[in-house]
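Data deposition worksheet. Section B asks for the primary sequence of the deposited chain exactly as it was used as input, without tags or linkers unless they were present during the calculation. Section C holds the resulting structure in token form. Section D is free text for depositor observations; keep each observation to a single sentence. Incomplete worksheets are returned to the depositor.
Section A, Depositor: J.P.
Section B:
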Amino acid sequence: MNKKDLAAFEKKLLEQREQLVQEIGRLDATMAQNIKEASGDLSSYSFHMADLGTDAFEREMSYLRSSTEGALLFDTIAALRRVYRGEYGTCEGCGGKIARERLLALPQARFCIHCGQPMDPADRFCMG
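Section C:
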């Protein structure tokens, strides 16, 4: 990978990191507001059980989204570390090069397309 490509991937990863940090901040603020509203005095209000279930579902979805965004942020930061160590674009599985097209689609990719394929459930128990 040449220096121009590496600089372009670094820029893309830095932009992705910034977007993720902002999105996680928005999700955290939304969750904090929902928790604050949920902990208020509800004794004077009549809530239907379905409304309470909807609120719980929305909170759970916010937690899930925040968790997913956090994992993506972790992977993005790890990719930036690989850029700075000169290891970016090298498959952690086989040591080969990760295709440029794969990195364009998934800049935080750690594995080439072959090593990144999901394992066949029958292969999980292979002792060979």
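Section D:
The chain is about 60% helix and 0% strand.
The two ends are 34 Å apart (CA to CA).
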